[in-house]
Amino acid sequence: MASIMYFLQSSLDRYRHISWNTFENDMLLKGEVSKVIIIPNREMVCVFLQPGAIVNGRKAADPEHFYYSLKVSDVNKVEEKIRNLEKGMGIPLGQGTSITYERRSECVPVAIALISCVMLGLFVFMMKSLSSSISTFNPTNIAQTKAKYVRVDKIAKQGRGITFKDVAGLHEAKVEIMEFVDYLKRPEKFKSIGARIPKGALLLGPPGCGKTLLAKAVANEAEVPFLAMAGSDFVEMIGGLGASRVRDLFKDARENSPCIVYIDEIDAIGRSRGGQNVAEGSGEGEQTLNQLLVEMDGMGSTQGVIMLASTNRADILDKALLRPGRFDRHILIDLPTLQERRETFDLYLKKLKTASPAVNYIENLAQLSPGMSGADIANICNEAALYAARHKKKAIDVSDFDYAVERVIAGVAKKSTVLSQMEKKILAYHEAGHALVGWLLEHTDVLLKVTIVPRTSKALGFAQYMPKENVLYSKDELFDKMCMAMGGRVAESLTFNTVSQGAQDDLSRITKMAYLQIRELGMNDKVGPVSYGVENEANVKPYSMYLGQVIDEEARILIAKSYKATEKILRENKEKLRVISEALLEKECLSYKDMEELVGPPTFGKKSPLTSEWDEKKND
């Protein structure tokens, strides 16, 4: 409405009324008048001023959008009076103010009035509609909104479901989760010896490891109703609606028992109550959680409904939700091992058209992807197929897979970044320092590739290693890792007698490893075999200020020790450092095979588990 009134006001107030004295003394005699338009049929005289004109000591409005209305008794005598004034000012005839006559339609004010009436009527209509909708609004209608779950088992029966054959690895998890299906199908076998049927299983693990995928497979294999719902579907701003949807979900589940209920991302409604969020504890989230706890194991709970849920934030879940009787089993679905990665690549490569049999790629790809989840592996296979199709290949070969692995780990090569010759040289020596130190030490990761081509991940250089999948690391192994990370900084210092900011990420990792050994792993003689975790929620260190100073000092000593050890290695092998750096400047990328040709085999024996054919075909 305010915008309507502004429009009408602006259309009617483009002029201001002035008297003849104001026009004569403040405008005409001062030479501020640009033109005068006389409208006889409306008895109106419009006065337009020069741009920047001053009236009564103030700058006049923009003449393009504003004019002055002159009050006169007879418009027919206006021109004569103006010419007489100009004659008295000594202005020759024909050089005075421009005076024109116009005839304007009377429909303009009428049109404005009509528009005003129409828009006012529209506003009244909208207000009446809004008031009627408010009067008919009933909050109970929203509260009666049913839970919107999905019958995954029906989708599976249509042939679009996922089976255990589509889930590679996860052998232990499959066995555990299928036990719950067995409980539903043959409960007498367990009840006959007094066993209690478990109420639920919680799937835990990092993102992309197959928790939801495994739940979909269970829906297809169980042959019982499978009701799936996301945790966020319970969350609403209206109080009580989440709890109502929980009741609806379990009501339908009991009517279809034996049945499985699955809640994805249960941390959306299962967050721990109390703590620092006591003020928020009585809100919608806690009411929803309380209703879920009652439905799973409360006074009115019944048998025949098994609960499955998944989350990657088990640390924030309420303890009442995790206890036996609600979630009896906590099934960890972790990052895949080497064997599980082989199976996962075998699963996805069968769907691709490869240049040679898929079995020729599986072992090397599994070795190249430590620490990757099943989703990462699927992404590698898809990126390789996209890259091959982009280059109009008929099949995917080794170079496509190598590109895909590199893209997932470090991002795409950013060749638009322009480095000066000196910056390239510093970068080459930096990466060569990392590569050479890792090549000469015993407990370092396998170097697969080193390059000085900038990446979209903001890394100027990139070295691809194959981390050892050890469960335990010794003190010597951690120290060698610190030395390898220090190699770039030391190489810059020895070669250029100065350092750059390129080692910031390396120094951050070195500092974390130093504090890890001293504060948490008990690997320092002075601090002793104690373990202090990081600061708690109140940001209070669990040790004294004196011990904190000792830990800081020992961390600096350990870092300095790794610097000296790295410096000694690079001083003794300065020629090898120069050879690797010059090769990087020339080729921009060196492989394991290139490193062997430049500086000989690694000091402690061959490290690369990749077949020689992989490097040969990749470089073709």
Report on this structure:
- The protein has 620 residues and is α/β, with parallel strands linked by helices.
- The chain has four domains: 1-106, 3-Layer(aba) Sandwich (name from scop); 150-273 and 284-332, Rossmann fold; 338-410, Helicase, Ruva Protein, domain 3, CATH 1.10.8; 421-599, Peptidase M41 (Methane Monooxygenase Hydroxylase, Chain G, domain 1), CATH 1.20.58.760.
- The protein has helices at 2-12, 20-28, 78-88, 107-135, 139-143, 152-160, 171-185, 187-191, 211-221, 241-255, 284-297, 319-322, 338-349, 359-368, 374-390, 398-410, 421-440, 475-496, 504-520, 545-572, 574-587, 592-599, 612-618; strands at residues 15-18, 33-39, 44-49, 54-55, 58-59, 67-70, 98-101, 150-151, 200-204, 226-230, 259-264, 305-311, 329-332, 446-451, 462-466, 589-591.
- The strands form four sheets. Strands 8-10-11-12-9-13 form a six-stranded mixed beta sheet.
- The two termini are 72 Å apart.
- Its cofactor is Zn(2+).
- Its main location: membrane.
- In the N-terminal section; belongs to the AAA ATPase family. In the C-terminal section; belongs to the peptidase M41 family.
Number of beta strands: 16
- Percent helix: 40-55%
Percentage of β-strand residues: 5-15%
User: What is the C-level CATH assignment of the largest domain?
Assistant: Mainly Alpha
Give average pLDDT, whole number: 78
**Structure classification:** alpha/beta
What name does the CATH topology of the largest domain carry?
Methane Monooxygenase Hydroxylase, Chain G, domain 1
Q: How many structurally independent domains?
A: 4
Number of helical regions: 23
The largest β sheet comes out as: 6 strands, mixed
- Alpha carbon gap, first and last residue: 72 Å
CATH superfamily of the largest domain: Peptidase M41
CATH architecture classification name of the largest domain: Up-down Bundle
Spatial arrangement of strands, main beta sheet: 8-10-11-12-9-13
